[in-house]
Design brief:
The complex is a heterotrimer of chains A (about 475), B (about 280) and C (about 325). With about 475 residues, chain A is an alpha+beta fold. Chain A is built from 14 helices and 21 strands. The chains are: A alpha+beta (about 475), B mainly alpha (about 280), C mainly alpha (about 325).
């Protein structure tokens, strides 16, 4: 599973005496250091306590966060200069400066944050700190996705005075610059954070409730105020007075596509084409996603706007007669995926049985699945929910890059194409990347390493007379540039 | 097989019981028969289930004239899925419970009757087994064997045997001092003869009484094991139907109710048949 | 039980612990994948994976690691959780109260309920009730715990509004009292007790059935004692034997059984810790839990044997 979307909501308006909001999350965040892990449950919680240099609005527009303004000297080796908020303070009172930023990138993010390491580090030649409020990034090449990779999810800033000289992987109480400061973490029970600055709720309590049905009952009884993610089947059962909001994802969020990936070393093209034409994708959307989402129209998520190539999949419509011909006789393949996708596997099994292809699902826990698919490559087909993020460089590139073949939840198909690798390099360096990405998708449909099924949206729901304003990436009051 | 009675009670001793007790004893035979009958009656629909037809319809249709037990989220007839799942579930449940009993009963009796070292060794083994997380065991086995019914039954039986083992051991320890057992020993009967002829008939009933429970647990556990890679998710089974239906319990109760009912019927049926299997006089 | 026997049994505890922990140690080693996914999230490249493996000594041979673990254990050190960086003993101690608060009341309740039902429906009362008490209990046991929980939640939490549906305490209260904990535990305890009462009742009834035909019971009848008295005074104590045996063994299984309840009611107990640590491949925690579980199981069996010896003089040895 790819990074879960983070959606939290903020109380807009009235501040009252000691207000608490209880937020239900499905899994414990683990050690609260967002700079060393890309795990979704961690970022849902920890991103309220930390800041990135910028914050991304729902449409992907960068807004000020720790950096109040920035400018770029364009050229083959661009230079980005960020001016930090002089009033920014760590929760322990120490001023937050450019030294913290430089330390975090060079010592922590580029070593331990898998996406910053893969997506950002190769394009950064040097980081300079001319004064405490200024950070200069000298890039070795153009990186059009640069700003989108600097938000709190992709690049949270850590306090240098606490981490310098230590092992950042050793867990310690989090100290950040975010709007909430850490109070307590009882594993599998709750994480409590209290307001550090700004207006809104005084305390947030993240309650860890693994069962969707229990989350729903807790919302009904008023034990929690907000469900970060409601299971598709349960949306219809939300209390009548609950506000619900269906989200595609967005910055720091998801843009997830449930994708069938083929092991190119094992499954011949004819069989891959047969499978693509045998899947009834509208039925998957209706039955498994309960209509919350869209049938995928391209290899990239439609939320990526100009990068997606809608219609690129039309050459392989649902046509079981042709599929049967392409298959050319009975066959048997396995499908290795995580247990959470068991119903998707079952639906595919039924679809493929209709053309004479026997699918043998093997459901594993996520670690065993990553081991079987990405490390040992012992699988015929697999199901991965690829989340594309705000920019194709962040989430989509890893599907096609031949360098990402052994990386967990990277290039599952083992897709290796010199032309595509060249296009990826070109796309990273040109201002108009849309054409390159559309070309990549056209080539990928011809080679067919992946067959995208359904873009799965998710729904957040909350109750109360106070209005929540949706926010993606972190709490919305950070979108307002004013710091106290 | 007639049991020899060693204690000084006449063969017609129930007649000697006070007034309110003997009715039950005299009715004993009939009650047992009706129990076995009831057990078979409960098992009958389950055994006939594989003969049912299939068919698909709209997704999540509630029970009605066309689909008696409704349809699941993929539009498949729940009754037909029950039928297809019967074989997997009955073999997993029966195999798992059977293996657990086949291991637990003799080992428990041996532990209860044998020397202290045998007892200690077997008891520690049972404790060890009860402790190792079944899921962890399944995870490891699955990474070696892949999905297979045999491996599944093995895991089910190997993790469940401590329950009958404990019951059998307690019974055997109580019975080893019983007059008929001591008499048999005094008459020179060997260990195995004492165990088989004189202790087993007395010790078996409370142990067999848990067969229904073991069966039900094994059927449900089969689903849990399928979700860590052991067992074949492509084969329908009641346990998996329950597990798949649980997230939809709020909007489609029949997805859970129907396989649960089948499972309950089968478990009760097996329990009754095992219970009726106890020898006369016990 | 003779003192020598007791001493022998106590002496076996360290050996049992070593065996159990080593077995789980080996199983964790065999389980596919390492702690990388839990620690670094998705997309960790080969260098990061190697870094994490080296950090926990996973690049060393199994025997070397086993010996290091054993030496630490000999010094009373259970190790450090790979995920949390805290001592395993502290991680377990933090969760233990929740699990005990769930298991002990549920065990007492299921025992009391199972015994009462067993006595009430014991033969010859069976003649009047027919097979239905057994059937009812088997049905109750075969119904998935999840469904029992959903039913109880629907009635007592959502319908009547008496009790909360999740958690060990109210999320809005910083420092909850015991009453708050008790309210939160009511439904989980009831669910678990309902599930367990069946086994208790069946085993007890089967025991009673056997005992009622024994000479001393028949003698009691012959002396003219009334049926209720005979059942209670002469048959019931011996019929408790299989129960005591069950209860001792249940301590170990209870941890696994508690997983479902803890998950459904979002309780931060040991069962969830075990399952998640296994999923995270957090080996020190899993092995530490196995050790603690083995202590509980072995002490439980010992207590059960002591209870059996006390209930039934025939088994003293």
């Amino acid at each position: 599973m790819i990074r879960l979307a983070l959606v939290l909501f903020l109380l807009a308006g009235t501040a009252r005496a000691q207000t608490t909001a209880v937020v239900a999350v499905g899994a414990d965040p683990g050690p609260l250091n967002p700079a060393v892990s890309t795990a979704g449950p961690l970022h849902t919680v920890a991103d309220t306590m930390f800041s990135g240099l910028v914050l991304l609005a729902e449409d992907g527009t960068p807004r000020p966060d720790l950096a109040l303004s920035w400018e770029v000297q364009d050229g083959p080796t661009p230079v980005w200069t960020f001016r930090l908020d002089p009033a920014a303070r760590w929760h322990d009172g120490t001023p937050a400066t450019s030294a913290d930023v430089a330390y975090t990138f060079t010592e922590v993010l580029f070593r331990h944050h898998a996406r910053a390491r893969a997506g950002l580090a190769p394009s950064v030649a040097a980081i300079e700190v001319p004064d405490p409020q200024t950070v200069v990034f000298r890039l070795s090449r153009r990186n059009p996705a640069f700003l989108a990779q600097l938000d709190v999810t992709e690049a949270p800033i850590l306090p240098r005075h606490i981490y310098a000289g230590t092992d950042p992987l050793v867990a310690r109480p989090p100290v950040g610059t975010g709007p909430f400061r850490f109070v307590e973490h009882r594993r599998d029970d709750r994480v409590v954070v209290a307001r550090a600055w700004g207006a809104g709720y005084d305390r947030l309590v993240f309650r860890i409730i693994p069962e969707p049905a229990t989350q729903l009952a807790a919302l009904q009884r008023g034990e929690v105020d907000l469900l970060v993610r409601v299971a598709p089947a349960d949306v219809a059962r939300l209390p009548a007075d609950a506000t619900r909001r269906q989200m595609r994802g967005g910055p720091g969020g998801s843009n997830c596509v449930m994708t069938l990936a083929f092991n190119l070393q094992r499954v011949p093209l004819a069989q891959r084409r047969a499978m693509a034409q045998a899947v009834d994708r509208p039925a998957l959307l209706a039955r498994l996603a309960f209509g919350q989402g869209r049938v995928a129209t391209a290899l990239l998520h439609s939320g990526l706007g100009g990068f997606a190539a809608p219609g690129v999949l039309d050459s392989l419509p649902l046509d079981r007669a042709t599929a049967r011909q392409d298959l050319g006789g009975p066959a048997s393949l396995d499908l290795v995926t995580v247990a959470a996708f068991g119903r998707w596997a079952e639906a595919l099994r039924e679809d493929f049985a209709a053309i004479g292809l026997t699918l043998r699902p093997r459901l594993l826990d996520p670690t065993a699945m990553a081991q079987a698919v990405f490390a040992r490559r012992d699988f015929d087909t697999t199901l991965v929910s690829y989340c594309h993020g705000p920019d194709p460089e962040i989430g989509a590139r890893r599907m096609f890059d031949s360098a990402a073949i052994a990386i967990p939840f990277g290039n599952a198909a083992g897709f290796r194409d010199r032309g595509v690798d060249a296009l990826l390099a070109e796309a990273a360096g040109t201002p108009d990347r849309g054409a390159a990405w559309r070309e990549i998708q056209a080539r990928a449909v011809a080679a067919l390493p992946y067959w995208p099924l359904v873009e799965t949206d998710f729904t957040a729901a909350w109750r109360g007379s106070v209005g929540w304003e949706p926010w993606s990436g972190r709490l919305a009051d950070r979108a307002a540039p004013a710091r106290p | 097989m007639r049991r020899r009675v060693f204690w000084a009670v006449p063969p017609n001793w129930p007649e000697a019981l006070p007034r309110d007790a003997p009715t039950a004893q005299r009715r004993g035979g009939r009650a047992r028969l009706s129990r076995r009958g009831l057990g078979l009656l409960l098992l009958a629909p389950v055994l006939l289930a594989p003969l049912l037809g299939g068919g698909t319809g709209p997704a999540l249709a509630p029970p009605g004239a066309l689909h008696w037990l409704g349809t699941d989220d993929l539009g498949r007839d729940v009754l037909a899925r029950l039928g297809q799942g019967a074989i997997t579930s009955l073999s997993a449940g029966g195999g798992g419970a059977g293996l657990a009993l086949a291991l637990g009963l003799p080992l428990g009796l041996a532990a209860g009757l044998g020397g202290r070292w045998l007892d200690d060794g077997l008891t520690r083994l049972a404790e060890l087994t009860a402790l190792v997380p079944g899921v962890l065991l399944a995870l490891v086995l699955a990474s070696f064997s892949g999905p297979s019914l045999t491996a599944l039954v093995l895991v089910l039986g190997l993790t469940a045997w401590p329950l009958p083992f404990r019951l059998a051991r307690a019974q055997a320890m109580a019975l080893r001092q019983a007059p008929h057992v001591r008499a048999a020993e005094a008459l020179g009967a060997g260990f195995f003869r004492v165990l088989g002829r004189h202790v087993l008939p007395g010790a078996a009933p409370p142990v067999l009484a848990c067969a229904g429970v073991l069966f039900g647990a094994a059927v449900l556990a089969e689903a849990a094991l399928a979700f860590v890679g052991l067992g074949d998710p492509a084969r329908a089974s009641w346990g998996r139907q329950v597990a798949d239906g649980l997230p939809l319990l709020g909007i489609a109760w029949w997805l859970v109710a129907a396989p649960s009912a089948a499972l309950v019927l089968a478990a009760v049926g097996v329990g009754f048949c095992a219970d009726a299997g106890r020898p006369p006089g016990h | 039980m003779r003192p020598t026997t007791l001493a022998r049994r106590l002496a076996q505890i360290p050996l049992g612990l070593l065996l159990a922990a080593s077995l789980v140690f080996a199983l964790m080693h065999l389980a596919p994948g390492g702690p990388v996914l839990a620690l670094a999230g998705e997309y960790a490249d080969a260098a990061m994976q190697a870094d994490i493996a080296a950090r926990f000594g996973l690049d060393r041979p199994l025997l070397v690691r086993w010996w290091a673990w054993l030496s630490a254990l000999a010094r009373g050190d259970l190790g450090t959780s790979w995920l949390e960086g805290r001592a395993v003993a502290a991680v377990i101690a933090e969760r233990l109260p929740v699990t005990l608060a769930l298991l002990i009341p549920a065990a007492l309740l299921s025992m009391a309920g199972g015994l009462a039902l067993g006595l009430l429906t014991a033969p010859p009362a069976t003649a009047h009730h027919g097979p239905w008490p057994d059937a009812a209990m088997l049905v109750l046991h075969a119904v998935p715990v999840y469904v029992i929980a959903a039913g109880l939640v629907a009635v007592f939490a959502l319908g009547l509004g008496w009790l909360p549906v999740q958690g060990f305490s109210d999320a809005r209260v910083a420092d909850p009292g015991w009453l708050d904990h008790a309210r939160h535990l009511a439904l989980p305890v009831l669910t678990l007790a309902l599930h367990q009462a069946c086994l208790t009742m069946l085993a007890f009834r089967a025991g009673l059935h056997t005992e009622l035909h024994r000479p001393h019971v028949v003698t009691a009848f012959a002396r003219g004692a009334g049926f209720p008295r005979v059942r209670l005074r002469h048959a019931a104590p011996a019929a408790l034997l299989p129960l005591a045996a069950l209860a001792g063994g249940r301590l170990g299984g209870a941890l696994a059984g508690a997983v479902l309840i803890e998950t459904v009611f979002a309780l931060p107990g040991l069962g969830r810790l075990l399952v998640q640590s296994a999923a995270n491949r957090d080996q020190p925690v899993v092995v530490g839990l196995a050790l603690c579980g083995m202590v509980a199981v072995m002490l439980g069996t010992l207590l059960a044997d002591l209870a059996c010896a006390w209930l039934d003089p025939r088994i003293r040895r």
